[in-house]
Amino acid sequence: MNKNTLLISLLTIVAITGGLFTQQYIHADKVISGYPVLRETSALSTTTEHPLTEFTLADLAGKHHNISEWKEKIRILNFWASWCPPCLKEIPEFIKIQDEFAEQGIQFIGIAVEDKHSVAEYIKSNPVNYPILIAGDAGIALSRQLGNAVNTVPFTLIVNRNNQIIYRQAGEMSRAKMLELIKAIL
User: Fold this and answer.
1) Can you give the pLDDT at residue 41?
2) Can you tell me the distance from the alpha carbon of 37 to that of 43, in angstroms, rounded to the nearest whole number?
3) Domains within the chain, CATH numbers bracketed
4) Beta pairing partners, 137
5) C-alpha span between 14 and 9 (Å, rounded)
6) CA distance 76 to 97
7) What are the backbone dihedrals phi and psi of residue 104, each rounded to the nearest 5 degrees, phi first?
8) Quick one: 72 exposed, middle or buried, by C-beta within 10 A (0-12, 13-18, 19+)?
9) 73 C-beta neighbours (distance < 10 Å), count
């Protein structure tokens, strides 16, 4: 590995780490790109809600789904990629939580921000029990439109039955945090 490649790799790691570190210190009273960034600890107690913008994406089979298809449920949208270690760490817990709370109206929806082939390869070895939609590179712009101020994955949204975004989180979400949020909603 030459010095330029090593330097670029190091700078990339520093930039990603800095972005993730910075997002932990954004407070609810700040507004970024027109969206309030909610505190993790008070996200569900706030009255600040924003409607979910409708969008349509294809699944792995090529069938198009409008996000309103699941409007009668509490939707947990998770922007992810198979090359993202924190994303892959969340998925097994999301699978378990989907099983535990499906009958109570919880619906996870994975939104992959990469190509269909990479997602299909991952899913073939690691099946999930919730819909996976393919957004490709446009997924980053969509997540930004939905409030992902730090442009990172994973990025998770919780949308209530009134189609209002009630929680956003950039970065990895623990099982304990997800359960805390779900129980507060239910």
Assistant:
1) 33
2) 9
3) 3-185 (3.40.30.10)
4) none
5) 9
6) 11
7) -95, 10
8) exposed
9) 17
pTM given for the model: 0.75
φ, ψ for residue 58, nearest 5 deg: -90, 150
Confirm if 164 and 51 have CB atoms less than 8 A apart.
Answer: yes
Tens digits of pLDDT across the chain (186 residues): 566 555 455 444 544 544 444 343 333 333 323 333 333 333 343 335 689 999 999 999 999 999 999 999 999 999 999 999 999 999 999 999 999 999 999 999 999 999 999 999 999 999 999 999 999 999 999 999 999 999 999 999 999 999 999 999 999 999 999 999 999 998
Question: Is 168 within 8 Å of 156 (Cβ atoms)?
Answer: yes
Is beta strand 35-36 parallel, antiparallel or unpaired with respect to 31-32?
antiparallel
Can you tell me the distance from the alpha carbon of 67 to that of 24, in angstroms, rounded to the nearest whole number?
28
Distance CA 161, CA 47 (A): 15
Residue whose structure tokens are 């996870």: 108
pLDDT value at residue 50: 84
Q: What tokens were used for 69? A: 């298809």
Tokens of 107: 């619906």
